[in-house]
Amino acid sequence: MIVCGIDEAGRGPLAGPVVVAGFINTNNYSNQFITDSKKIAEPDREELYSEIISSGCIYFITKIDHLTIDRINILAATMKGMGIIAKTLHEKCEKFLIDGNYFKLYGNRQKNYNYETIIDGDEKVFEISCASILAKVTRDRIMREYCKEYPNYNFSRHKGYATKEHIANIRQHGLCPIHRRSFCKNFIELSIITEQPSEQLFL
User: Fold this and answer.
1) Fewer CB within 10 Å: C terminus or N terminus of the chain?
2) How far is CA 22 from the centre of its chain?
3) What is the pLDDT of residue 188?
């Protein structure tokens, strides 16, 4: 059976997009070092990312920006990204294997697809692990680009997660345009917005 692994990166951060990736192993690709992207060092993830996209296999990556996350909430934004993957790749595979325990699309459109949710799928299923790496590296690169635009927040270091450093940056400088307001309600009164975010930051 031809399966497509789906995983996301960036549900928890205070800033930036959530990124969702799908991967179909159409070329018998294998690598013993591929596992959950969170368990792989950043330089190694970058190498594996390059290997995966050069493997001749089918993949697709999409992002849902911070404005959409604030408008519809992070769960709905993640499902929206997964829906884009499913719509794009459903003719290329027979089943979707999705990391986690939940998959529901607007209008119950998930019923149009053959799918299975798998807890810790990014460790258990090779295709999901590959999708995990694609999503994580893509998002990290986006956040490094944002770091150039908003250097006061060191996004290249913490990628928008709620580290002590990041919270200290917010307390000192206020919120920047890519912060998720719905995640930063305690900091709204500190908001300093003097410029607009870039249009679309992709690779």
Assistant:
1) N
2) 11
3) 56
Q: How far apart are CA 153 and CA 18, in angstroms?
A: 18
Q: Which domains does the chain have, with CATH numbers?
A: 3-146 (3.30.420.10), 151-190 (no CATH)
Distance CA(95)–CA(90), nearest Å, equals 8
pLDDT digits (tens, 9 = 90+) for 37-54: 999 999 999 999 999 999
Quick check: helix, strand or coil at residue 111? helix
Give the single-character DSSP code of 58.
Answer: E
- Non-local (6+) Cβ contacts of 5 within 8 A are 22, 23, 24, 96, 97, 98, 99, 121, 125, 126, 127, 128, 129, 130, 131
Output helix, strand, coil percentages for the chain, rounded to the nearest 5.
50, 15, 35
Q: Which pLDDT tens digit goes with each residue over 72-125? A: 999 999 999 999 999 999 999 999 999 999 999 999 999 999 999 999 999 999
Spatial CB neighbours of 73, under 8 Å, sequence gap ≥ 6? 182
- Whole-prediction pTM: 0.90
pLDDT band at 191 (very low <50, low <70, confident <90, very high): very low
3 state SS of 168 = helix
